[in-house]
Structure formats: C-alpha cells, structure tokens
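Standup notes
- DV: blocked on the single-chain target, sequence here:
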Amino acid sequence: MTTYLVRRLIQAVLVLWAAFTLSFAVLYLLPGDPVSVMAAGGGETNAVAPEQLAELKRQYGLDKPVSEQYRGMLWNALHGDFGTSVRSGDRVTHMIATNLPDTLRLASAALLLALALGAGTALLGTYTRRPWLRQALLSLPALGVSAPTFLVGLLLVQLVSFRWGLLPAVGNEGLDSLVLPAITLALPTGAVIAQVFAKSLRTALGEPYVVTALAKGASRARVHFRHAARNAAIPPLTVAGMLVGNLLAGSVVVETVFSRTGVGRITATAVSAQDIPVVQGLVVFGALVFVLANLAVDLVHPLLDPRVTTAAAVVR
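- DV (later): unblocked, structure below
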C-alpha cells in the first residue's frame, strides 16, 4: 500500500510540474510579445508606450533569459506566488483564494448531484424488468451529454426563475441561488457517470459470482445493489475523479450565465483581458484540483478492490 501511495504522489507532482511548464511555454514562449499583450489587455498592442512595456518587462522579470525566467517563476510558484494581475494589480493567489469558496460550493453540490443522478439512473435502468422503463432510463445519459451547458442554464433560468418564480436567477446569496447552477453543472457529469456505471453493471451482472449468489438463494435486489454495484463502482468512480476538472471548466459558463462570483468568473475575465499571470495561476490551480481529485480516487480504489494494490506490486 505504501508503494502504491508513493507512486501516485510522484505522478501527481509530475502532472503539476508538466501543467506549469506547458502553461509557461504556451503563454510566454510562443510567437508574440506577452508583455505587449498584457499591457494592451485585448486592445491594439502597438498602442502601448515603449516606456510602459519596459516597466512591465522589468516588473515581471521578462527582460531576463528564458531559462532564468522559467526557474524564477517555478521557484515562486512552489512558494504559492504567481505574481500580480495586470488588470487589477491584486495578487493572483489572493484572487483565487477569495473566489474559491463560491466555486467550491458550486462544484461540490454539482458533483454530489451528478453522482446521485448518475448512480440512480444506472442502478434503476439495469434493475427494472420493464423494457420501456429500462430503455427510457438508459437513454437519458445520451440526452444529458449532448445538451449544451449554457442552453440548459438559460432554459432553467427562463422557466424556473422568470416564468414560475421559484428560484433566483442570479447571485450567490443563500442555498436557493445554488440550486439552478448546480443542476446545470451536474447534468452532463451525471450523464457520463450513468453511461459508464450502466455498462460496468451489465458486465458485472454477467459474471459467474452473480449466478452463484442467486443459486444460493440471495435476492435479486441484494445481488444487484450490493455485490454487483460494488464491483462495478471502480470505472464510474475513476471517471468522476477525471470529471472534477470538467466541473471547474464548466463553472466558467455556469457562473457567467447565473452572474455568480467565483474562479470560473475570474477565468473568463482573465482570458478576455489577456491577463497572463492570472491565466497561468488558474491553469496550475486547475491541475492541482484535478490531481487531488484523482489522488483521492486512487486511494479509494484499494478499499473497493484489494486486487488494485496487488496488480501494482506485480507491475513493479
């Protein structure tokens, strides 16, 4: 188990390093002058005064050789310092930390709702003996995946908020304002989980141990919801860990549609204003969330299936 954990931790560190290096290469090394882009903030780069460009280069250390820039930024990033926003002058880490609680509430609510919807749909769809109900339930995930997030959000706002007046359409005040954004964000994630879980369940229900359990007198519900569901849980759990990153990416659209504050909202603002230090900080932050979520999933795997650590030992 210790070897398994150490290996996953090393992989997590490598992913974070790769995310930082890739974002540095894309934002600072590709053709074009990042200082002019930052100073222009989406406007004409040739309209920026040379004195302003020189000051920005000195301020961000971009007047130094590339290798020295990379080492300096990496060292600062290891200490949680991604510089300051070109537009607001605020520290990038402070901007993320200030907006993070709202996005975490939204992403956590969406993930819980997605797990409930996805698992419930897959379990009922594979358990029912009514063909029309099975077909209807197992068709829902395809609909959820294909529906654009912004369209679902706008539809919910139009019907639930404006026409029926049941829930607020905008803002971050109270739990009521969290319901519609969480549903909007949860639907595509829950649909993917339902598709993967349903397929995994159908495979598990064809295994010999299911036939043996039924032959020994175990009820169909016990075999389905306890034995088969547990053995089929690893694939959807792995997918759920990978989809955490999608929840953060989806928060950009959802927080914009529902006029909520959060990391997604500052991401949209930073990209539109070409605020490169903020964009790089958000890229590394997104990678950190992705890594932590997958690390948590990796740690749960051996609890569901002890063969996981055995397989890791054999590979080693």
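- Follow-up: The mean pLDDT is 83.
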